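Long-time lurker, finally posting.

We've been working with Tellurium resistance (Streptomyces koyangensis) and I want a structural starting point before designing mutants. I don't trust myself to interpret raw outputs, so I'm hoping someone here can both generate the structure tokens and explain anything notable. Sequence follows.
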Amino acid sequence: MSKGANMPVPQAPVRLRLHWRHGAGVPDAWTAALLVTGDGRVAPDGVVGGERPVPGGAVRHEGRTVTGDRTAETLHVDLPALPAHVDRVVLVAGVGGGTFGAVPGLDVTVADAAGDRELARYESRDTTTETAFVAGELYRRQGGWKFRAVGQGYAGGRAELAAAHGLAPGLLPAPRTPAAPPPAPAAARPAAVTLTKAAPSVSLAKQGATTGSLHVNLNWQAPPAPRGWFARNAAPRTPLDLDLGALFELADGTKGVVQALGNAFGDLHRPPWIHLDGDDRTGAVAAGENLTVNLDHTRDFRRVLVFVTIYEGAADFSGLHATVTLRPQHGAPVTFSLDECDVPSPVCALALLTQGPDGLVVHREARYLVPGRSSSPQRALDEAYGWGLRWTPGRK
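Top reply, 14 upvotes:
Generated this for you. Predicted structure of Tellurium resistance:
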């Protein structure tokens, strides 16, 4: 099969295998299966790798076999036993201590589980700097199943692959790596850049962030719950739900929005080169709201405005103590805190990325907006920055 091609497979148990030739200097690989629902999200308990099976046993990792100079990792998929809400089974893989460009003989096969007869084969021969990739996928089509050869690579590795599927990197198998060198002294590591009102901008290129991914995180602390008499007499509180998003304008004039509202989660590997992770309602530092920008396509951006809205749980941003961190794959992180909100604002412009002489420049905005009586938070943001989009009601 060629990259992107698809073919039908029988609605029966099958085996997905990743094969490669091992040898001196060849990085070791890992595999996992992602169970994706019809809305494009990975199902709860939908990561299968190592000792982690899917509930019900419909998908399991059968381990590794070595024959001569060939290694294979196998996932058993019982297609008839898959829950009805699972729309795709995605075979993902990664390496530790190298790139897939250094892994020879990389093949993906589908075999009938009963007789182990090969049904499809995809030979991946165009990998270079990728350290993780989507090898192929089984997907439902008109009451049956098909296999597609995907071969989509991620130079950002396990973290970038996880972000593209709305997952925490820790849910994917840990790469096997040779013994790591001792960590660099703390002084050799790039120090974070803190933006303030007095120094509100920084060039990403001057911080060494010209390629790879830019991970944007928003975390916050919810106002404390009432205590004593006030707690007993207070109405039940709706959990606080903040939504991170981004308005984008590309170099070709394309404009749009990436946000959870309307399920407009974007895409990291095709326009708009921005992907929003899953929705979070805790604000924890390790989670919070996250989106990723593909810096390999820096010149495809004209401007990107990162913003946050209150979906429910609070009338404005007062008392939330929010912090924004932009963490590039290469270079120093950029961070800043939001000012205390003293207006009835449900939307805040966080950071504006624009083109500078050397690439993207990050501007600290921290600007609270108050929509008009008939205006939405997104429309108020659009009008303040002159984006010119048409807005319609949406839900998530």
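Before you design anything, note these points.
Residues 11 and 371 are 53 Å apart (CA to CA).
Residues 177-189, 279-287 have pLDDT under 50 and may be disordered.
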